[in-house]
Amino acid sequence: MTPPDDWREACLSNDLPEAGTLAVTLDEQVFCLYRVEGATYATADRCSHGRGSLSEGILEAHTIECPFHQGCFDIRTGAPTALPCNRPVKTYATREADGVVWLNTSPRDVAGQP
User: Fold this and answer.
1) What span, in angstroms and rounded, lies between the C-alpha atoms of 8 and 105?
2) Which of 8, 32, 34, 60 could, after both became Cys, cross-link 41 (CB 3.0–4.6 A)?
3) Beta strand pairing status for 94-97 and 7-12?
4) Residue 17's Cα: distance from chain center in Å?
């Protein structure tokens, strides 16, 4: 069973630039944070195909491109959007308050819903 409160302080808001990525380690897991049009998102940092670090990839709108094989994912749902990636990455809920980005360390389901 999941702990009642799995929200963790991920970073300061200023550490996550617009159209940027940031790798953070929480509870011995590495996550990739994103900011697009002022909203924050989070996925697992590892690509589901080549194990590349998504935080080192290219972010365009809501799509992250893995630096290893150029496979892509929708950061809102984790769904693969370009080959060779064909398995989704885990996504995580985020919230931002008082200059802090918070991340819920329990993954959403495959469709991107809590």
Assistant:
1) 7
2) 34
3) unpaired
4) 14
Structure confidence at residue 110 (pLDDT): 58
Query: Residue 86 carries which side chain, given as an amino acid letter?
Result: N
Q: With a threshold of 0.85, does the pTM exceed it? A: yes
Structure tokens, 110: 């495959």
| Domain spanning 7-104, CATH class | mainly beta
Between CA 35 and CA 56 the distance in angstroms is 14
pLDDT attached to residue 102: 98
DSSP 112: S
| Amino acid in the structure at residue 108 | R
Q: Contact 93/101 with Cβ under 8 angstroms?
A: no
- Whether omega for the bond prior to residue 80 falls within 30 degrees of 0, making it cis, is no
Q: Report the alpha-carbon distance of residue 65 to residue 80 in Å, rounded.
A: 10
Determine the Cα–Cα distance for residues 79 and 110; give it in Å rounded to an integer. 8
